[in-house]
Amino acid sequence: MSTISIKTEADIKGMRIAGRLAAEVLDFIAPYMKVGITTGEVDRLCHEYMVNVQGTIPAPLNYCPPGYTPYPKAICTSVNDVICHGIPGDKVLKNGDVINLDITVIKDGYHGDTSRMYYIGEPSIMAKRLGLITYECMWLGISKIRPGAHLGDIGYVIQQHAEKAGYSVVREFCGHGIGTIFHEEPQILHYGRPGTLEEMKAGMIFTVEPMINAGRREIREMGDGWTIKTKDRSLSAQWEHTVLVTETGYEVLTVSAGMPPPPEFIKTSAEQIAAS
Ligand code: MF3
Ligand code: CO
Ligand code: CO
What we know:
The chain contains four helices and 15 strands. By secondary structure, the protein is of the alpha+beta class. The chain has one domain: Creatinase/methionine aminopeptidase superfamily (Creatine Amidinohydrolase). The relative contact order is 0.19. The structure holds 2-amino-4-trifluoromethylsulfanyl-butyric acid (MF3) and cobalt (II) ion (2 copies). Its EC number is 3.4.11.18.
């Protein structure tokens, strides 16, 4: 029995707006991502932009899944060996740091969820390659989305691409269905086998958000109840889009003027990248 919701036309309209707004926070903050800024300052700037300019609600603030303490900030800032859920604070960004900013906004009850990598100053060749391969992993996964395809098809291409590059896929966290609820069914695993798991149907909306480690896949949970790091202290990268299954393929909902273009090898039609 499937409990994956099929969105209505009204839901899809709301999700397009929320998705664009989330991506626009990432555009807004890009010029500030420089040596010397603290993660707390990045959070404050994004939080003010969401509330005062967009009229959106930061979904992470006070978010409290079962077994967790309430998340204390508006965004997630995951630096270097932090895989995900890094809490903004006093950390000063220095030359060569790599950081993922993960933004989830709520607008008219609908959630838009997207994240990007930023390089502070001059990144190492290692860090740039990890960021690029992870970006390709996300888009390869997205490119599999169409009615009749299986959720396992997404994880398979992501895992293949990551492991071929000598990297590993984090298994403890995954993509997720999203709508008026932040995290709902289905889970989108970033590893797996083609033809397995649920069949995709037009009207489903979920995120694709691979976390790829330069070293081993094992994780370490920090004492703050949220921050997740690589066990071997290797670098980790993540990119995230929220995507709608359409009648013919997919539509990326977290689009904005400043979003990086898909990799060259991804064949997209105008319809598949929402013109906003
Ligand atoms: N935005 C994250 C995701 O992609 C979730 C963050 S939960 C938080 O699913 F509470 F840490 F914000
Ligand atoms: Co997400
Ligand atoms: Co996210």
